[in-house]
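Course assignment 3, question 2. Fill in each field.
Student: A.L.
Task: Predict the tertiary structure for the chain below.
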Amino acid sequence: AAFWVLLGPEVKAYQRNWELRGGRELVDPWMLEDSINYDDDEVSGLFGAYYFGRIVHASVVEDPLAESREEYPLDHPMFQKYTMETDEQERITGIPYRLRLRITDSGGRTLQVHARMSEEYLDLERGMPVC
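Answer field:
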């Protein structure tokens, strides 16, 4: 049980990332060796990926590991006049608020993203397209 508590989230994240990449390894184009034929399917990897989807959930969290019950909606009164310069959380703890987005593509895959909160994100709405 202790094993799963400690490593379970990492294993789940690894599986989700593997599915998103279609089982192919990521390739750094700046580190390619000239002697390898990267057109060969045996050694070719994923040079980049586009993820097209729509926002299904947008909220603000104090910590990326926070549970959904600890989220604030973007229209919460606390964020009405929010700016990065006046981030109360960052002033007190040194760690800024984070935007949490959940995005779903047409294939049903879901991607959750965290970013430093910015006043530019307050207009995000459910259903908006993302790439």
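Instructor remarks: Helices lie at 2-20, 88-93. The two ends are 38 Å apart (CA to CA).
Grade: pending
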